UniProtKB/TrEMBL annotation:
InterPro entries the record matches: PCD_sf (IPR036428), Pterin-4-alpha-carb_dehyd (IPR050376), Pterin_deHydtase (IPR001533)
GO biological process, one term: tetrahydrobiopterin biosynthetic process
The protein's Enzyme Commission number: 4.2.1.96
CDD domains noted in UniProt: PCD_DCoH_subfamily_a
Name recorded for this polypeptide: Putative pterin-4-alpha-carbinolamine dehydratase
Transmembrane residue ranges: none
Keyword vocabulary terms for this entry: Lyase
Catalyses which reaction(s): (4aS,6R)-4a-hydroxy-L-erythro-5,6,7,8-tetrahydrobiopterin = (6R)-L-erythro-6,7-dihydrobiopterin + H2O
Class of the enzyme per the UniProt entry, highest EC level: lyase
PANTHER family reported for this sequence: PTERIN-4-ALPHA-CARBINOLAMINE DEHYDRATASE-RELATED
Pfam families (alphabetical): Pterin_4a
Amino acid sequence: MAQLARQSCEACSIDAPRVTDEEVATYRRDIPDWSLVERDGVQQLERVFTFDDFQQALDFTNRVGALAEEVGHHPALLTEWGKVTVTWWSHKIKGLHKNDFVMAARTDEVAD
Ligand SMILES: C[C@H](O)[C@H](O)[C@H]1CNC2=NC(N)=NC(=O)C2=N1
């Protein structure tokens, strides 16, 4: 299967398909450091990135923000001293789309 990070995001729309359980299992192999969480019935992908100080955390936050703006698909970002929690899901379909796995893989690429 092509590396997730190399695939372009598809635009999310209200009728975009949520991933199946089998797809989740497959896609998760490319993003082993991400957790699958469920909040208010909404499946999400989440990872905590750690840094030496707040400025590095902020710089990373801005890199992820630029990525999100580039593709028009946005995460939740919690920026704290020395760490950033990134959470991906597709708001319109209240769950996970392939976009979210692609963006998690691309987030890993801008982490260092
Ligand atoms: C109008 C705007 O393009 C849409 O609201 C986009 C913005 N970014 C988005 N990001 C995410 N994660 N899910 C969405 O459904 C979504 N929709």
